[in-house]
Automatic annotation (TrEMBL), chains A, B:
Pfam families hit by this protein: AP_endonuc_2
InterPro entries with a match to the protein in the record: IolE/XylAMocC-like (IPR050312), Xyl_isomerase-like_sf (IPR036237), Xyl_isomerase-like_TIM-brl (IPR013022)
Protein's name according to its UniProt entry: Sugar phosphate isomerase/epimerase
Species: Phytomonospora endophytica
Residue ranges of domain Xylose isomerase-like TIM barrel in the record: 33-256
Gene3D superfamilies: Divalent-metal-dependent TIM barrel enzymes
């Protein structure tokens, strides 16, 4: 049985219903996003998942605690409800960056810890694990003040592993001198909630958000990192999540087929 | 006495002789680059420095060990000779990224360690400290496989501090969850060879090389980091080094004056 899951963001502009059908034909899972779920309709999404039998490996995404105030807590409760309704055990969290004009990165990180304390029990009751995703340090100011896997694990530490874990995404952490120790630690602590893969390519595009490379096109040691994640005891789905303008400009079914093939060649 | 030093790269296209004169008028030091030194003429540069009394706080830069082979060792010996001739005690090293087509980041890091072992005694004999500069992880694949201050300190550890130290540059390490512990460690180990400042602003430009912000325009906690570097026992020059297309497009003397004022307001 393949562990591959296709994250909808990889073919962002492809109709969600068609992506689910493609995943069903391929016999793989899917990573969903809240906005397309809402657009397609959550009940309709649930019906489509039931009809096709496609498992939802993660829901993306909650978080943005640092800039959202009280409203972000309420919104994250709704995200947890949606994750449960969609039948996934994992809600991916991107913490948020610095508030406009702020330089207080420690303060922002403290807000993330506070938000987790509010949300963790609620997530646990829903059977959903909050997966703190460290984002590459190039996003530290504007998207995510959590920059390393160790930091995510430190934030998760006060909570049961069923409530709070970490997202291991090759794109964001491949460069970390402490990577393999951190992956082993994540395994020991039972915190690997999801494993996502994307390759690192340069030059980065302006804004750096949409430069994630197709598997095999960059410098990430995919098999080595996968072996480390396996050795850490994680045997769950492996999601391909690529934010890439060039992929997004192409037909979804073509990108889907290419991604499945690239996964088999470079990861699976 | 001001600790400010103006790195020539901040006004990259301004004639080196004019930059030295501006530094003399302001009573500050200068950070030089090998290429403009060669273009201006090293003997002529030395004469100009003598005439004006401007101290050279660093020479930028050696390194690129990962992609340069034997030739890079020879080139770095020449860089050490140039540093001594210019009267600076610090040669800044950017390690280099991954060789074309390579995914072996551990191998590249090992090459950096090997190159340091060859060069450190030669640098020590010349009275020059090799300052390993961790670059922001967004440069890990194409410019520098050394991404954190701790990693630079680990690489420096086998050598006397007079031979190998680290460059502390706010732009590259401000995001590090372990920043303040690493700065304290660098001080304890006597390894702070130079302190450089630049601000972090977004959105990053394509290629991400030329987006360093003028002091005060971004989110780096300048005074806090400076206080930590001071507390770690470093009392040497503070260099402003900005790679910024917008600054480079403006007249050098205007950028110089703006930079001196920004330093006084946000750092000094």
């Amino acid at each position: 049985m393949t562990r591959l899951s296709f994250n909808h963001a990889t073919a962002k502009f492809w109709d969600q219903g068609e992506v689910i059908e493609a995943c069903a034909r391929e016999g793989i899972g899917i990573g969903l996003w809240r906005e397309p779920v809402a657009e397609y309709g959550i009940d309709r999404t649930i019906a489509k998942l039931k009809e096709t039998g496609v498992p939802v490996t993660t829901l993306c995404r909650g978080g943005f605690f640092t800039t959202g105030g009280r409203e972000s807590i309420e919104d994250n409760r709704r995200a947890i409800d949606e994750a449960r309704a969609l039948g996934t055990k994992v809600l991916v969290l991107v913490s948020g960056g610095l508030p406009e004009g702020s330089r207080d990165i420690d303060g922002a990180r403290a807000k993330v810890a506070d938000a987790l304390a509010e949300l963790a029990p609620y997530a646990g009751d829903a059977g959903v694990t909050l997966a703190i995703e460290p984002l590459h340090p190039m996003f530290a100011s504007d998207r995510c003040v959590v920059s390393t896997l160790d930091q995510a694990l430190d934030l998760a530490a006060p909570f049961p592993a069923a409530q709070v874990g970490a997202a291991v995404d090759t794109y964001h952490i491949w460069w970390d001198p402490n990577l393999y120790a951190a992956i082993a630690r994540a395994g020991t602590e039972g915190r690997i909630a999801t494993f996502q893969v994307a390759d690192w390519t340069t030059p980065l595009p302006a804004g750096v958000l949409t430069g994630r490379g197709q598997l095999g096109t960059g410098c990430v040691e995919m098999r080595r990192i996968k072996a480390a994640v396996d050795a850490a005891g994680y045997d769950g789905p492996i999601e391909v999540e690529l934010f890439n303008d060039e992929l997004w400009a192409r037909p979804g079914r073509e990108v889907f087929a290419e991604t499945v093939a690239a996964y088999e060649e470079h990861v699976g």
